[in-house]
Design brief:
Strand content: 25-35%
Number of domains: 2
Distance between the termini: 41 Å
CATH topology of the largest domain: Aminopeptidase
CATH architecture of the largest domain: 3-Layer(aba) Sandwich
Shape: globular
Number of helices: 12
Largest sheet: 13 strands, mixed
Radius of gyration: 21 Å
Helix content: 25-40%
Length: about 375
């Protein structure tokens, strides 16, 4: 079945998202306002009866200047962690071809999607065993605990339709999203069960924070400067480039305008001192841990563990079925510096999840090759 694809209003898009158990927060119209440097539009998929059955946020970024040529009025059409369509369909062509045709008419030289379909899952015990095995360096080489055959079919269909996994990514242009994430399932678990599911270190640190008198509260946009102060301290300590304060102010303003409880700011204080802070994003039954920050001083009071535990409890209370700690790599090599990230997150009692990931469809092959060359040299 071929669907009709056309622009929909913000209100139509918000209503569609609300009718689903959840969609990625990167597929909300509000996220398009956060990414103000991209031209944005909401697309809708309509069936023969005229019913809206799919939706997606498209971010258009102009082709950058390549060598001596001026930028052309051509764009990369990017749907981060989207679109929200039936990824289990045996006929993805019916969904994707009309979208590609529409975006090509809109001036896109290529389309990038982030198929939000889970391919494989590894439970905590499997991850721990892999880390302990010196012969294993990648989780992708370990037999998964769950394999989604519908996603395997989707991968085959994407390749048949000419879609390609992107060779290069750049946060300033493609803003690629993680293919590997870590999630804590919340279904059929009360607080005691969630706490017992954590490893001994996590439980001990949560208990230590409570005993030390760490207090976790939900702040407001007025508290963002305090968050940003320790966020920049974290960036300097962990060697990454921090986002400016106005980025977070724009994020809060846009997301809360769409839904007052779309985003929260959590603050952990110890004896009046801010020691940790995080952002929390919710769409339907899915909660994401966004940004985190902590001070070098008073790390022994374990404010970061306290604030994570509060967010997990609040996610459960809000009706979420999953608490998402976002990106990881698939390394389980004890000698790899990235292994600490998956070890830390595994301590929550959750599982590693591999998505189908991001795929490109070149619409103008000459411009797409030039774009790939440009990205490889940055």
């Amino acid at each position: 079945m071929a669907f009709q694809v056309r622009t929909i209003t913000t209100a139509e898009h918000v209503a569609f998202n609300a009718s689903r158990p959840s969609v990625s927060f990167l597929q909300t119209p509000a996220w398009g306002e956060v990414k103000s440097e991209w031209r944005r539009e909401s697309l809708g998929w309509f069936d023969d009866a005229g019913e809206l059955v799919g939706a997606g946020l498209v971010l258009h970024r102009r082709l950058p200047k390549i060598n001596k040529f001026k930028p052309l009025d051509k764009t990369l059409a990017y749907l981060p962690e989207g679109p929200s369509i039936d990824w289990a369909s045996d006929d993805l062509a019916g969904w994707l071809r009309p979208m590609a045709a529409y975006l090509k008419k809109r001036g896109a030289f290529a389309v990038r999607i982030g198929a939000p379909a889970v391919a494989r899952r590894w439970h905590g015990a499997t991850i721990k065993a892999a880390i302990a095995d010196p012969a294993v360096t990648r989780l992708s080489d370990v037999r998964p605990d769950e394999l989604n055959h519908a996603t395997t079919r989707a991968l085959t269909q994407l390749r048949h339709l000419g879609w390609l996994p992107p060779k290069n990514g750049d946060a300033g242009f493609a803003a690629g999203q993680p293919r590997w994430v870590f999630q804590l399932p919340l279904v059929d678990k009360d607080e005691d069960q969630l706490l017992k599911g954590m490893n001994q270190l996590w439980r001990r640190n949560i208990k230590k924070a409570t005993k030390a008198g760490v207090e976790v509260t939900v702040g407001t946009a007025a508290d963002l400067p305090d968050f940003h102060r320790i966020y920049t301290e974290t960036a300097e300590r962990d060697h990454f480039n921090p986002r400016p304060l106005d980025y977070f102010q724009t994020m809060f303003r846009a997301l809360q305008a769409e839904d007052p409880d779309r985003i929260r700011l959590y603050l952990a204080h110890h004896e009046g001192d801010l020691v940790a802070a995080t952002t929390w994003v919710r769409v339907g039954q899915h909660v994401w841990y966004g940004y985190g920050a902590s001070t070098t001083a008073k790390r022994e009071v374990r404010g970061s563990n306290a604030v994570q535990w509060q967010m997990i409890k609040d996610a459960k209370a809000a009706g979420a079925t999953v608490y998402d700690l976002r990106g990881i790599t698939d390394t389980v090599d004890a000698e790899d510096p990235h292994v600490g990230l998956i070890q830390f997150k595994t301590g929550t009692g959750g599982e590693a999840v591999e998505y189908l990931g991001e795929w490109d469809l070149p619409l103008n092959h000459l411009l797409y090759k030039a774009f790939e060359l440009y990205m490889s040299r940055r």
